[in-house]
Amino acid sequence: MNRAFFPVMKSLGIAVLAVSSMIPAAYANTDAKAVKADPAKGEALYKGGDAARGIVACVSCHGDAGNSTISVNPKLSAQHDVYLVKQLTEFASGARNNATMTAFAKSLTPEDMKNVAVYLNAQKSVPGAAKNKDIVELGKQIYRGGIAEKNVPACAGCHSPNGAGIPAQYPRLAGQHQDYTLAQLQNFQNGSRKGGAKIAGARLNSPQMMTIAKSMSEDEMRAVADYIAGLK
């Protein structure tokens, strides 16, 4: 074999090592920028929107720091950021149907979604309250123990006894408006809310909630929604 071959290969090897050592660093920097959320930017978008992109401020519908005072608009404060990103992603794709939210979500970049979600996750939730004392005990029984004869599991098993949920798995429910919770249970029941996309490797809500809601009566859904509103 020609001796000149070895110096050439040695030089080539050094060059390859030099280039390859640069690639991971470049990708690492890119990934870090892509995944790191900025709550300050999220707060600015939530409170002020972005007129240049036609994005309306979230606060106008969901209240200060995510504490909605409109019963049909959900409270978003202290909600898990992965769950919020999933919902915005599904609104944007049309997997979850809501004309207002779809138009809004389509205007957001993935970074916008993460920024707003992280901001909201850090906000303190204003407690709600149960309103109907005649049905709240039934709601408590369903939330804590389920409905055995209908194979409805206890809500607490996934959403935790105090309604805090489990990050990256099940959403926070504590203090949510009765009207909103009831509407979502009805949507799961009639199949208008499906979703089921995976975000960060976690499948959140829809398939199992559709099965559960289809086994519940209107009175049972109202009762559990009222009980959830009073959780802290």
Explain this structure:
With 232 residues, the chain is mainly α. Helices cover 54% and strands 2% of the residues. It has helices spanning 5-35, 39-48, 59-62, 81-93, 99-106, 110-121, 136-145, 156-159, 178-190, 206-214, 218-229; strands at 198-199, 202-203. Strand 1 (198-199) and strand 2 (202-203) form a beta hairpin. The radius of gyration is 24 Å and the shape is globular. Residues 1-33 have low confidence and may be disordered.
Which characteristics define this entry?
232 residues, two-stranded antiparallel ribbon, globular, mainly alpha
Shape: globular
Low-confidence stretches: 1-33
Structural category is mainly alpha
Straight-line distance between termini: 79 Å
Q: Give the rounded overall mean pLDDT.
A: 86
Number of helices: 11
Q: What's the short version?
A:
The protein is an all-alpha fold and 232 residues long. It has helices at 5-35, 39-48, 59-62, 81-93, 99-106, 110-121, 136-145, 156-159, 178-190, 206-214, 218-229, and strands spanning 198-199, 202-203. Helices cover 54% and strands 2% of the residues.
